[in-house]
Specification:
2 strands, two-stranded antiparallel ribbon, mainly alpha, globular, MetI-like fold
């Protein structure tokens, strides 16, 4: 007798749900990955090549570290680099000090309509471009502007002082342009803080300073780290605000990069300066995460 065949037909296998989910995820991420590849990865690779070459003849280049050697040997470049880093750290710290009370008010004190109004007041200045906002500060602080005239009217100055082109003025502009980027992650972090923890701390004899240091700040640490990272990177790479408010003597490193690329057409030197600025921002972010005890994943979730 012929052998019996299996009555159950063999069905073709289908992709599993896991495979479908992975394919869908890759499809959804494709535009973002192409964006990162085309506008971030490839330009940075090109800058790396530019920074490591030297022109020896028309359209003839060789591998060289002359651009980085120029940075080390030229005091102006090194001084500007250090000054930019220090001013960026100071601006980030001042932004944090100003943003923390605002974020606490939005997260814990304001309710309903008042909360919406306060957040809108923080958001309104960013409805206009940074150029217009910076020019507004120039109008307010110039010798014939509002603030110098007010100082004369109050008897605090005999003649209208020139408030522009000072380090303090540059810091004011940097803090003003970065405040919202610190308020948002801080507010998000503080909103998740349980009010019962604060009440329990007061019941156990804690005071405001102890509660702030032992409960509020540790809980808000991921938000603080996220805000500081964003503000520091925005401040470090800012070109318009230091140039307009600080004038020719602002000594900001992005201005040196602009000069090399646009004014001197020395793309190799400009690329080297750009990579040095990138290395500085990466090192500062890594150091900030280590000092705060935060991981990059915790910060990005904020």
């Amino acid at each position: 007798m012929p052998a019996e065949t299996n009555p159950v037909a063999v069905r073709p296998t289908r992709p599993s749900n896991t495979l479908r989910a992975r394919l869908l995820l890759m499809l959804l991420m494709a535009p973002a990955l192409l964006w990162l590849l085309g506008l971030i990865v490839l330009p940075h690779l090109e800058l790396a090549v530019l920074s490591l070459r030297a022109r020896v003849a028309p359209r003839v280049y060789e591998l060289s570290l002359n651009q980085y050697r120029t940075f080390i040997e030229e005091p102006l470049y090194w001084h500007t680099f250090v000054r930019t880093a220090w001013m960026s750290v100071l601006a980030t710290a001042l932004t944090l000090l100003m943003a923390f009370p605002i974020a606490w008010t939005l997260a814990k004190l304001a309710r309903g309509r008042a909360k919406s109004v306060l957040f809108m007041l923080c958001l309104v200045p960013f409805w206009i471009s940074e150029t217009v906002r910076t020019l507004g500060w120039m109008i307010l602080l110039r010798e014939s502007g509002v603030f110098p005239s007010l100082l004369v009217s109050l008897g605090l100055a005999d003649t209208p002082p020139e408030l522009l082109y000072r380090d303090a003025t540059v810091l004011v502009g940097l803090v003003y342009s970065s405040l919202l980027f610190m308020v948002v992650p801080l507010t998000s972090a503080l909103e998740s803080l349980d009010d019962a923890l604060i009440e329990a701390a007061y019941d156990l004899g804690g005071n405001g300073a102890n509660i702030l240091w032992r409960i509020v700040i540790p809980h808000a640490a991921p938000g603080i780290a996220a805000g500081c990272i964003v503000v520091f990177m925005l401040t470090l790479g800012n070109y318009l605000t230091p140039t307009l408010l600080g004038g020719k003597n602002s000594l900001w490193f992005t201005e040196q990069i602009y000069t090399q690329f646009i004014t001197r057409f020395n793309w190799e030197q400009g690329a080297a300066f750009g990579f040095l600025l990138l290395a500085l921002s990466t090192a500062m972010v890594w150091a900030g995460l280590k000092l705060s005890g935060q991981s990059f994943d915790e910060v990005m979730r904020r």
